[in-house]
Amino acid sequence: MPPVDRRAVAVAAAADAVCVLVFCAIGRRSHAEGITVAGVAETAWPFLAGTAIGWTAARAWRRPTTLAPTGIVIWLSTVIVGMALRKATSAGTAFSFVVVASLSTAILLLGWRLGARALAHR
Hints:
Layout: H1 6-30, H2 37-58, H3 67-88, H4 95-120
């Protein structure tokens, strides 16, 4: 196995975290909840926990920018763990929210990986 590029791992982890934070900030804005650091953190923590679990499950540090399996495992974990934690803390998990969250995080978490792949092939 080739050596781990720590910079690439850090950038990929940061990109995933930013994607989750962007998703949460947009959601809070669309529901007129206000975009404050505390508010975004309150909304984001379950999804960030899911992202971290996904990183561990996928061993994402080995190939942090790959779409499959890394990106898909991280995306699914972000949604599934995030929703489970929201449910456990009595936060909203309406079906429409699950659908919107799944699509939005797929676009963000998988989209940046597709973009990175396209740039790498240039």
